[in-house]
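FW: tagging you since you asked about this chain on Friday. Here's the raw sequence from the shared folder, copied in full. Didn't touch anything.
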Amino acid sequence: MKLNNLYFFTATIKNWLPILQNDQLKDVIINSLRYLKNNDKIKIYGFVIMPNHIHLIWELIDMNGNEMPHSSFMKFTGHKIIRYLQIDKSDYLDKIKVNFNDRNYNLWKEKPMAIELYSPNVIYQKLDYIHNNPVKGKWMLAESPLEYKYTSARFYENGIDEFNVLNHIGDVI
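HL: got it, structure written out here
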């Protein structure tokens, strides 16, 4: 990914485990995004946190030290969530165990998907996809996108950013 480009980004938990069903762990994701936004590393235009994956529409603004912001985000959230699972003595730990030189666990599936967004039509299509993700398929986490807490859908409906992480997509297209 390159700085100052808009991306549809998907990161998935290793083995598609529903680790993010826990709201405390969803908050780890939100807090990391907020930190990067408040330090002018990213702009977030849409998001949803599902039980086993996340979708974002974001723009990477500036390096976070020597790392790209998405790398920092993946590393930080991985460490925090694994630490939580260790304290909680979660059964999920066995399922994310790895035998790497630099770590014993790997939360995120390797190579998250990043698609550069190049037109308003595609951007709005991805935003709709993100907002409808909790109400479709096997999850059915809510009756309406507006009822699901961990999404940007309500922001686009009422303008209130309850997580303090969002920028409106209309500001860039």
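FW: The longest strand covers residues 42-49.
HL: agreed, and The mean pLDDT is 96.
FW: great, closing this out.
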